[in-house]
Amino acid sequence: MSIVNEAEVSTLKGAMKDYWSRVKAGDIGSLPAVLGLVVLCIVFGSMSNVFLTPGNFANLITQAAAVIVIAMGLVFVLLLGEIDLSAGYTAGVSGAVLVILITNEGQPWYVALLASIAVGVLLGFFLGTLVARLGIPSFVVTLAAFLAFQGILLLLAGEGGTIRVEDETILAVQNSNISPIGSWVFFIVIAVAYVLVGLSSMNSRRNAGLKTELKKLWIIKTAALLTLTGLAVFALNLERSNNPDLVSLKGIPYVVPVILLLLVVGTFVLGRTAFGRHIYAVGGNAEAARRAGINVKRIRITAFMICSGFAAIAGMIFASRQNSISPTTGGSSTLLYAVGAAVIGGTSLFGGKGKVRDAILGGLVVAVIDNGMGLLGYAAGIKFIVTGLVLLVSAGVDAISRRGNLTP
Q1: What is the pLDDT of residues 96-151, one digit of tens each?
Q2: Most exposed: 13, 175, 347, 364, by fewest CB within 10 Å?
Q3: What is the CATH number of domain 36-176+253-402?
């Protein structure tokens, strides 16, 4: 691998050269997911007149939301080199608790939501304790929990039964939108906050004598990101209803702020706290982390608790989209899609590498494949095969990059 000195990196050309050197060395991050998403959108957009319409764009977001949130939580566990196969049904059980408290017990939505998240966190504590304290492999523990939680969901919902939720706040998460003006205000606030936080972070690192990203490159990347998100807001503010006189559909779905809030919280925890640094340390080398004084067992337990907490929030999103909870909520391909989303987005199955944003990128890739192939009339079997191949390729690239085989 070629070495790019500090003087060269101080120029835009040098920074790009340094980035390409890191890519060839295996540090590819989310690049495959970004390129794959662009290619898929171009292919499906050229083959379907419906794919790039505002209505389908909004549908993509709501369709992918629950899987993305579960994948966000899974990132914390995958960073440790562990796995949680029960996250899908954790969402189902927590969602059932939410709906039962609202529908059957008459509790307000916020009390029910807090209770369902508490249930999710408690389930994660149980799983993490078995893995960390007893040393049972996470694959075995969570596979057993997959079956057990499915049984609990059947008992709560009743086999073949459905519990409906009619709370307006819960239903609005997936079925209502921010007004067009509110959507632009929301975009401006987020854009200003993103720029200010980015500049503050760069200045802090520079004052501390740490290496910072070239400012010109940061400006280009930020401008590109804000332009894309601005176009997305513009598209979502267009009328999506087939009968606007009866019902108008405009604006950003309420689930988007929910996902962004979780992204901000998860990114802060991993990037700005000692706990986040410890997760990466344990995932990179657990024994070295233990010798450095890190409580490895506590880190593992907490990661499983966070994963299940995110799954509980996904349970609320499921309930909102389906207007109910059933024995199949969180089952079927939900968990497989969530793991696939995290890995496709760039999180390593071997631990120590990944970010919460990977779940969003990977979740969009999975949703685009499912949605685009559905619009083109492909059978469900073909969609599963293609998604599986994309996941296999992503895991293969990750494995190869860890061995440095991308270096010529």
Answers
A1: 999 999 998 889 999 999 999 999 999 999 999 999 999 999 999 999 999 999 99
A2: 13
A3: 1.10.3470
